Amino acid sequence: MSKLQGKVALVTGSGRGIGRAIALKLASEGARVVINDLDDEPGDAVAAEIKASGGEAIAINGSVSEAGFADRFVGAAVEEFGGLDIIVNNAGYTWDSTIQKMTDEQFQAMLDVHLVAPFRILRAAAEPIRIFAKQEAEAGREVFRKVVNISSIAGLYGNAGQASYSSAKASLVGLTRTMCKEWGRYKVNVNCVAFGLINTRLTQPIEAQQKTIDVAGRDIKVGVQPQMLDAMARMIPLGRGGTAEEAADAVYLFCSPESNYISGQVVVCGGGLII
Q1: 91: which DSSP letter?
Q2: In 7, 85, 92, 238, which residue has its Cα 20 to 30 A from 55's Cα atom?
């Protein structure tokens, strides 16, 4: 039997990149997945991909920062699949500036997507988790649930030009360790994966015409200068950036039964990079 057979997993930002790879990995191990993307098309496409391969999935699209999203997202999992076993807080993007150029809007936007949104999702999940855990305890069953929050080496070590992003990702580690202590009584393992250089559309080499993504009507520049990517690759002991699938594998470690006695931890998925 697949290790996650029958489990219900929620993955934010799972229409593209690392999130998509996480959703497909969990589905391949038997999980029923609630997909989310800012845009309908990629979110719906991943849900359809999982269904086409014999799995179960629904898409609850929209901005994780919107008021009411967390209740809608968690509610869909319970109503559609009747459970709530794995939460992966993955959605996010970067909006960089040096501090003297950073606006309040920029700073708050990073807090909203990388910290406030995970907080709201976990808060929305608290009551269903409490109810499920109580029922299981009364039946003499020990059932473990999983939360994996996605941080970054920028949150652990800082990164020039990312005061807002680094602050949010560092705070997410604090939230992880606090929820480990609050939810241990419910048999919830709460851990964090901090990514190093993972090759996605957000870290693609900047060409002559820098690409942008649309986030809530804002054009956000994405990509990294090629010379910086080369320098980072030279710093990584394994010699290259990671793939989305390798990033997903790190998250899966904390979703699997083998992590049932691991909680409150941060694992760096960065090819050995230590700053």
Answers
A1: -
A2: 92
